[in-house]
Design a protein that fits this description.
255 residues, Rossmann fold, 6-stranded mixed sheet, 4-stranded antiparallel sheet, 10 helices, globular, binds adenosine-5'-diphosphate, binds magnesium ion
């Protein structure tokens, strides 16, 4: 957590910069010129009603979709519409709303499988090399899954799977991690574990951009928030200010 967000924002360069991103699908404009910035060691929240364009934004950042217009920069490097594998190697990683794990692999094996973005058919040969094993163990411990390290991932709860994918997303020490709805579908008694894990990883230097529906979660975690609506920037600011903005209340609750 940044102690003085406004000063931090005014005095540091963004790690990830999105400028005027536009994405047209046949029959729908999902993004209509969205801009936002994430700075080192920040937790930035992306919120907005259903259909606002949040998932499309992540998919454009990751190279899953080619934007119709606009740019994405990681530090000073333009990564717009690069191959996803290249974007990941440059230092952007993500987790998904529905946690993607390999159910028949153990927790620790999943860390390696994610590292290599392996296909199911070669997973039988998954082994951690000596170099990455300590970091895998550290991360598994940090997210609170140490006791389950040799358990098959398919036996984990939704929340535990999400913790596993958060751990895996950090293995390559990325510049920034995009978390898509980290608490969605998670048993309420595990939501606090996820919040605490993100806080701890952030204290250890990780930078996050988070899509999240739960306003309490986003308020607790975020240094700064961008509210999207209909594919455009509606409001931005620190959570206390942005979430109280009349335009935001209108977008969520108005007709
Ligand atoms: P959010 O994640 O904020 O709920 P999305 O980014 O999923 O919003 O969607 C934004 C808009 O773009 C919606 O109107 C949605 O129907 C549309 N959209 C998203 N993906 C596609 C797609 N692959 N094809 C057509 N329309 C899409
Ligand atoms: Mg979405």
């Amino acid at each position: 957590m940044i102690t003085d967000t406004d000063t931090h924002r005014a005095t540091t360069e963004p790690v990830l910069r999105i400028d005027g991103l536009r994405k047209e699908f046949p029959g729908a404009v999902a993004l209509d010129g969205v801009s936002c910035e994430i700075r080192r060691e920040e937790v930035v929240g992306i919120v907005g009603p259903n259909g606002a364009g949040k998932s499309t934004l992540f998919n454009c950042i990751m190279g899953v979709h080619d934007p119709t217009d606009g740019q994405v920069h990681l530090n000073d490097e333009e990564i717009t519409a690069e191959f996803t594998s290249r974007i990941v190697r440059s230092g952007v990683s993500r987790t998904f709303q529905l946690a993607r794990v390999f159910p028949d692999l153990t927790v620790r094996e999943n860390m390696v499988a994610n590292q290599d973005h392996a296909d199911e058919h070669i997973l039988k040969t998954v082994v951690a090399d000596a170099e990455s094993t300590p970091r895998i163990d550290d991360l598994v411990e940090l997210v609170g899954l140490w006791d389950l390290r040799d358990r098959k991932a398919g036996e984990l709860s939704t929340g535990q799977k999400k913790l596993l994918t958060i751990a895996a997303s950090l293995l390559q020490d990325p510049e920034i991690v995009l978390l898509d709805e980290p608490t969605a579908g998670v048993n309420p008694n595990l939501v606090d574990d996820i919040i605490e894990t993100v806080v701890e990883l952030n204290d250890n230097g990780a930078t996050f951009c988070i899509i999240e529906h739960d306003m309490d979660v986003i308020q607790t975690l975020s240094d700064y928030i961008y509210v999207l609506n209909n594919g455009t920037n509606l409001v931005e600011g620190t959570p206390d200010v942005a979430l109280e903005d009349p335009a935001v209340l209108e977008a969520y609750f108005g007709e």
